[in-house]
Design goal:
By secondary structure, the protein is α+β, with helices and mostly antiparallel strands. The protein has 2 helices and 6 strands. It has helices at residues 2-5, 34-45, and strands at residues 14-16, 20-23, 26-32, 50-51, 94-95, 102-104. The chain starts with a helix and ends in a 13-residue tail after the last strand.
Length: 117
């Protein structure tokens, strides 16, 4: 598995928590959010990049840098770079629902580790 993804840029890898919502019968539990999950699975099936719209907080385990907008795919990513070939349009990112939490592999998530040696 590692050899299959060794050349994939970390910004192209997204870790996502399965979409969920508070259980209407028990606020101490969650249930799958099928509508949000269907959007996610459709993007995966179509091999489209996804855009996490949830604004992370310190409680999400992601380093939050003030004023940093959510990551978006680079414009023209995947387009042909030689002028002689026809340009290939970049796949458009699918914006996920606000209740879908996640991060890219490029985001720093372990900022409070023990560095005392």
């Amino acid at each position: 598995l590692a050899l299959a993804v060794k050349d994939v840029p970390s910004s192209d890898i997204t870790f996502i928590q399965y979409p969920n919502a508070t259980d209407p019968q028990d606020p101490n539990r969650v249930v799958p959010d099928d509508a949000s999950a269907n959007t996610l699975w459709a993007a995966v099936a179509a091999n489209q990049p996804v855009l996490i719209t949830h604004q992370n907080t310190v409680n999400d385990g992601v380093t939050v840098e003030p004023g940093t907008p959510p990551a978006t795919p680079a414009p023209g990513a995947g387009a042909a770079s030689t002028p002689s070939s026809a340009p290939t349009p970049a796949p458009s990112a699918v914006a996920l629902s606000e209740n879908v939490r996640g991060s890219t592999a490029a985001q720093q998530t372990c900022t409070n580790g023990d560095t005392s040696g």
